[in-house]
């Protein structure tokens, strides 16, 4: 696991520094990116940035589970989840 983390504020500052753009502009672009990703996932549209990442909505079937306290069987309804896959360039950066 990574020992360090980079939060959104630090990410915006770093991107602004490297690109020469203002932090407000970079923050606006990141907010727009996240809004587009959320809207696309909600509408079952896969978003792919070749070599970097892919984000898509996945379906989860209904299933039977167990209540951990009582051991009783419960029915878990079908639902949706989000899958984020790393692309080749991102995977190569992790080596």
Q: Compute the gyration radius: what is it?
A: 19 Å
Tally of contiguous helical segments:
3
| Second CATH tier, the architecture | Irregular
Mean pLDDT: 95
**SSE order, as H and E?**
HHEEEEEH
Structural class label: alpha+beta
CATH topology: HU Protein, Chain A
> Describe the biggest sheet?
3 strands, antiparallel
Per DSSP E runs of 2 or more residues, the count of β-strands stands at: 5
Helical content, roughly?
Answer: 40-55%
The separation of the N and C termini measures 13 Å
The dominant shape is elongated
| Quaternary structure classification | single chain
Task: Explain what the structure shows.
The protein is α+β, with helices and mostly antiparallel strands and 95 residues long. It has one domain: HU Protein, Chain A. Helix content is 40%, strand content 28%. A 3-stranded antiparallel beta sheet has the order 1-2-5. A two-stranded antiparallel sheet has the order 3-4. Strand 3 and strand 4 form a beta hairpin. It starts with 7 loop residues before the first helix and ends with a helix.
Descriptive terms for the model:
95 residues, alpha+beta, HU Protein, Chain A, two-stranded antiparallel ribbon, 3 helices, 40% helix, 28% strand
Q: What layout of secondary structure does this protein have?
A:
Layout: H1 8-19, H2 23-42, E1 47-49, E2 53-60, E3 63-66, E4 73-76, E5 79-86, H3 88-93
Antiparallel strand pairs: 1-2, 2-5, 3-4
Helix pairs in contact: 1-2
Could you give a quick summary of the protein structure above?
The protein has 95 residues and is an alpha+beta fold. The protein has 3 helices and 5 strands; from the N terminus they run ααβββββα.
